[in-house]
Automatic annotation (TrEMBL):
<dbReference type="GO" id="GO:0005524">
    <property type="term" value="F:ATP binding"/>
</dbReference>
<dbReference type="InterPro" id="IPR041628">
    <property type="entry name" value="ChlI/MoxR_AAA_lid"/>
</dbReference>
<dbReference type="GO" id="GO:0016887">
    <property type="term" value="F:ATP hydrolysis activity"/>
</dbReference>
<keyword id="KW-0067">ATP-binding</keyword>
<keyword id="KW-0547">Nucleotide-binding</keyword>
<dbReference type="Pfam" id="PF17863">
    <property type="entry name" value="AAA_lid_2"/>
</dbReference>
<dbReference type="InterPro" id="IPR050764">
    <property type="entry name" value="CbbQ/NirQ/NorQ/GpvN"/>
</dbReference>
<protein>
    <submittedName>
        <fullName>MoxR-like ATPase</fullName>
    </submittedName>
</protein>
<dbReference type="InterPro" id="IPR011703">
    <property type="entry name" value="ATPase_AAA-3"/>
</dbReference>
<dbReference type="Pfam" id="PF07726">
    <property type="entry name" value="AAA_3"/>
</dbReference>
<dbReference type="InterPro" id="IPR027417">
    <property type="entry name" value="P-loop_NTPase"/>
</dbReference>
<dbReference type="InterPro" id="IPR003593">
    <property type="entry name" value="AAA+_ATPase"/>
</dbReference>
<feature type="domain" description="AAA+ ATPase">
    <location>
        <begin position="34"/>
        <end position="175"/>
    </location>
</feature>
């Protein structure tokens, strides 16, 4: 199976439950194939949690969900040692982070201290519990949902936490046409949910797909284009803190996966353009003047993509490594 076939199978299977979410499924697939994590933002009721659960089932991976609230502690995420009176010893009780896909629901309702419990897991795929470092299952992926920060009872994610997410996806309310399709579908099958999704991939298949993505070629002009875009956003007059080199790497890897699932062996500028907003917007911190003036990270990135000239498409496929 190649990445394009895998994406098509995922889209078809998840589409039996979700309506009008092809872009969401594509970006989930890109993140999975590049060891990335996804942050979903949207108002309650737009199927953020259902989308994450459906994706986990479709890729055939172990799945855990944790509902964040202000009283959730770091140990509730990673686990802790429990004293067993019968044996007179402490036993490790693993937290929900020990899964292939961890769905962190309403992450911005947890305190920053609890949010930080995910940093090591998301960056190094391991956790440290009372001095003992334990590896997480492979593959490991975090899908976190959050309500818009304007909503009551939310905490803004720290910059270090946001930087661990490859993408921030904004889930909009469906169009009128899609909303009618949702009503019609669930009118006939009221019990239809993510549990009805059948696996179309497996952990071993995912490992092979990742190797295929890593082999996708990125020409020097496209690499330069990625750097030009990231640096232009970073140096924009409205930006206080720009995207880090980690963001440039995330954009590089995501571009390779997008090329692969669209049946190409090389990245083109359109791959970078399609993924730049999703990769950069949550990493950008605007200065006070821009914030007060109504400037958004989205508008800064879109303006950058308009002003930075991409290389010719023909240049993207040249200079292939020997033997390709």
């Amino acid at each position: 199976m190649n990445p394009a076939e895998a994406y098509e199978a995922l889209r078809d299977e998840i589409g039996t439950v979700l309506v009008g979410n092809d872009d969401l499924i594509e970006h989930f697939a890109v993140a999975l194939l590049t060891r990335g994590h996804v942050l979903l933002e949207g108002v309650p009721g737009v199927a953020k949690t259902t989308a994450g659960h459906a994706f986990a089932r479709a890729v055939g991976l172990d799945y855990n969900r944790i509902q964040m609230t202000p009283d959730v502690l770091p140990a509730d995420v990673t686990g802790t040692h429990i004293y067993r009176e019968g044996t007179g010893s402490f036993e490790l009780q693993r937290g929900p982070v020990f899964s292939n896909v961890l769905l962190v629901d309403e992450i911005n309702r947890a305190t920053p201290k609890t949010q930080s419990a995910l940093l090591e897991a998301m960056q190094e795929e391991r956790v440290t519990i009372e001095g003992e470092t334990l590896p997480l299952p492979t593959p490991f992926m975090t899908i976190a949902t959050q309500n818009p920060i304007e909503m009551e009872g939310t905490f803004e994610l720290p910059e270090a936490q946001r930087d661990r997410f490859q993408f921030k996806l904004v889930v909009e309310t469906p169009s009128r046409e899609d909303e009618r399709r949702i009503i019609d579908r669930f009118d006939g099958e009221s019990t239809l949910d993510a549990e009805s999704i059948e696996p179309v991939l497996s952990p071993s298949t995912i490992g092979d797909l990742r190797e295929q993505v890593e082999a996708v070629h990125v020409s020097d002009p496209v690499k330069e284009y990625i750097i030009d875009v990231v640096r232009a956003v970073r140096e924009d007059e409205n930006v206080d803190v720009g995207a880090s080199p980690r963001a440039a790497l995330a954009l590089l890897h995501a571009g390779k996966a997008r090329a692969a699932i669209h049946g190409r062996e090389y990245v083109i500028p359109d791959d970078v353009k399609a993924l730049a907003l999703l990769t950069l917007r949550h990493r950008v911190v605007l200065n006070t003047e821009a914030d007060l003036g109504g400037v958004t990270s989205k508008s800064v990135i879109e303006a950058t993509l308009e002003s930075v000239a991409p290389p010719d498409v023909a240049d993207a496929s040249v200079a292939q490594p020997a033997g390709e």
